[in-house]
Amino acid sequence: MTIQKGNVQDKTHFKHTFNLAKKVLEKGSILIFDCGANTKTNKKMVHGEYHYLTLKAKKKKSYRHIIQLFLQEKKNGITIKFEMNDSIYECFKLVRDTETTYIFFSEKCIRISCLKETRKDRDKAEKFIRGLKDGLELRPIRHWSDLAIRGYLLLTFLTNFLVNLTLYLAKKPLFRDIRLLRKFLNNLTLTVAYPPNAFKFTVLSNISNEVISILGGFIKKYDDDSLKLRW
To answer: For 56, which DSSP code?
Structure first.
């Protein structure tokens, strides 16, 4: 593990991790990393002394060319069919220069309903992880006790649960981003004034519509209603 400034992207962080790991790696080892670190610079860094296995990022353009290649390879009988987790897959490899790309197809995943459910589950997982990293600022931690690390993760999880429960119970929240919620809550200001010859009073300011959509009228209980009676 390396410690960097801020939330460094995977493609940038890969260099530091690789330079640290290669001190103990044997020649010819296989490095596995996700599509975030899949760049030409990083692969060129690994290629030669080591092998790598990674994923391709989702294409912004059409997959028509890949599908045509698959149908052609299937017609020629080159594709390999196998079964895993009650699903049947077909695979073929595409060799370009020094890189071999393995492409998998499954009839089950082509169904629209399956794609929607898969995308929905993936979106939930990504939002959960993004909320832990960005909204709750979950960062690399160092403790001498395993219980301290577990406790820190448990508190972070419970905080995320409380925020999501509040958003779920809110009737019509104007936003669901934890970072925005923290921003609006930090802007809330409770001022306590002590006049020389009068009783103290409080003023609650910076109450935005976004905060009211989440907390409702509960936040106004901290405002001083007696101010209207004094002047």
So the answer is: P
Give the separation between CA 138 and CA 129, rounded to whole angstroms. 9
Evaluate whether 128 touches 106 at the Cβ level (below 8 Å): no
- 10 Å CB burial of residue 184 (0-12, 13-18, 19+) is buried
SS3 103: strand
pLDDT tens digits in sequence order for the chain, 231 residues long: 666 676 778 888 888 888 888 888 888 888 888 888 888 888 888 888 888 888 777 766 667 788 788 888 888 888 888 888 777 888 888 888 778 888 888 776 555 555 556 666 777 777 777 766 766 666 777 777 888 888 888 888 888 888 878 778 877 777 777 777 778 878 888 888 887 877 777 777 887 787 777 777 777 777 776 665 555
Question: Do residues 170 and 190 lie in contact, with contact meaning Cβ atoms separated by under 8 Å?
Answer: no
- For the beta carbon of residue 215, count every other beta carbon within 10 angstroms: 17
User: Which class for 10: exposed (0-12), middle (13-18), buried (19 or more C-beta within 10 A)?
Assistant: middle
**Sequence spans of domains, the chain:** 10-110, 111-169, 171-230
Question: Does the reported pTM lie above 0.85?
Answer: no
